[in-house]
Amino acid sequence: MTSAKLRLLIADDDDGDRRHLRRLIRGCGLLCEIDEALDLAEAEAACEARAYDCAIIDYRMPGGNGLKGIVAIRERHPLLPIVMVTGQGDELIASEAIKLGAADYVPKSQLSEGYIAHVIKSALRKAELERIVTDQREELERFGHVLAHDLKTPIHQIRYLVEFIERDLEEGNREQLRTNRDRLLATARRMEDLINTLQSYSMTEKPIEVSVISLDGAVEGCLSNLASEISARGATVSCDPLPLVRGNLSLLTQLFQNLVGNGLKYCGSASPEVLISAQSDGPEVTVSVSDNGIGVPPPEMQRIFQPFQRLHRQAEIEGTGLGLAICRKIVERHGGRIWCEARPSGGSIFRFTLNAA
Ligand code: ADP
């Protein structure tokens, strides 16, 4: 829940009831700004004009009953939590309000400072959960859509290549046959890479176990996994002494591996130089992985952390477009943030925060 001032809307045509509710909310210790609406039309207009954290609507209102208001407001603002205030014996109305999407209801007879604080806080918590579920559903839809496309592409390619190979066999063209066989193997390998990467992307959804670990250990694991690539590219990877953090060793090893791997891959013609360093600031550690490569254009610096967002075509530089999305998931699982900056002397710096040990 946010520590900033809450923005609340009270919709009630009765002056006395509005004042009473306002007094209770003020008295219950919630830091908030309160607007008022005297009928449903005013409540709807207020929600259009301002983003509220919660609306408290009386059931009996001029311009229709509060249920009508819930439907109209939820249609335009599906994530705004609405609390319905009902009269004595209005249990049926209360259950109808919940069915229509109200976060909660409160009978007028039970209004007290403690009760209203509890109802508002639980409505805010519900709204927060609803927002998380909506975000996850949207991400899943996006993910499924792109995934279907990215898996279909190599499958189509494999089908065409098999047809070419059949033709090469009929014509007895051994040289062309070898070329198409190599293409087929490369396509199958890319598909395997994509599936492996997808597997690690979905693994990062699971709850993680954290302990006090040495970041140096995570970097060592990463460098050992990338050893042949580092030597093949004639790259230099240097690392300043790193602090202890609270984290998961295998996920942080993968995080370094993706960032250092990208530093090697997106190097342009320069021989890659990657530097890993960290800065401690109270409870937070900021780790930086910088490279002397081709850099990321500033308008793309956020998009590249989304699944399947690539700035290069497959023919230029191979990849799945999931490496940085995995990095973001790993960092967020650790309660941190990750972002990209331009390195002043050319190249990029990827920074992320972790909790200090
Ligand atoms: P992949 O490397 O598989 O394409 P990533 O998610 O790791 O997927 O990266 C997304 C995109 O961000 C890459 O396609 C590339 O265009 C860009 N990118 C990532 N790291 C770097 C880097 N160190 N330097 C320049 N561009 C980068």
Automatic annotation (TrEMBL):
Q: What class of enzyme is it?
A: transferase
Alphabetical list of InterPro entries matching this protein:
BphY/WalK/GraS-like, CheY-like_superfamily, HATPase_C_sf, HATPase_dom, His_kinase_dom, HisK_dim/P_dom, HisK_dim/P_sf, Sig_transdc_His_kin-like_C
Positions carrying 4-aspartylphosphate = 58
Catalytic reaction list:
ATP + protein L-histidine = ADP + protein N-phospho-L-histidine
Keywords associated with the record: Kinase, Phosphoprotein, Transferase
- Which CDD domains does the record associate with it? HisKA, REC
Q: Does the keyword Methyltransferase apply?
A: no
Keyword Transferase applies: yes
| Superkingdom assignment | Bacteria
Where's the Response regulatory domain?
7-123
Q: What one GO molecular function would you report for this record? A: kinase activity
The EC number of this protein is: 2.7.13.3
Domain Histidine kinase, which positions?
146-357
Q: What is this protein called?
A: histidine kinase
